[in-house]
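Continuing the series of single-chain predictions for the mutant panel. This is the parent chain; the variants come on the following pages.
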Amino acid sequence: SRFLDVAQERAGPSLARYREQLESVLGDYLYQPRAYDHDWPYDGDLLFEDTLAPQRLRNSYHVSLDSAALEGPRSALKELYHAAKASPSPYYAVIVLDGDSMGELISKLLDGPKARADHECLGSSLAEFSSKVGGLAAKHQARVIYNGGDDVLALAPAGSALRFAHALACEFNRFTDATASAGIAIAHHLSPLD
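Parent structure:
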């Protein structure tokens, strides 16, 4: 997440203290979906203050703690927000991009005098566009879920979703000389993905 990047860059010691506090209270109940990240291997949900509530921890981590037991982690998390000069946004965007009228375009190409060459050229253009999607996503702190030809599915911070979708559409046009449309849904981090 963007906040985690900022926290690691600006507030590494505060992030380490928060992690120590969490580990001392939650211990074996913590799971590590980001085991590759030595600074923060845990679920990003633990970076939200509202997660550190007895009911939420019971529902999400199957641990029963009272509010007093959570004072240390809550204090350390507030210190992290202060040191990072930021806090995580509870909202994110789901972005779906799709090339416009691609079936119609392909049909026209296949009916033309250079059908094979034109179809191969379009395929190469789509492959070039697809090769650029990851770089665009990184610039906008987005994560690509699916990237195939004229279809892209990604998650992004709500604040950069429009810029990312626009950049994708412009890049698609640059490589294919065709247009693409995007849909953006803004959701709360507690909303189920479905």
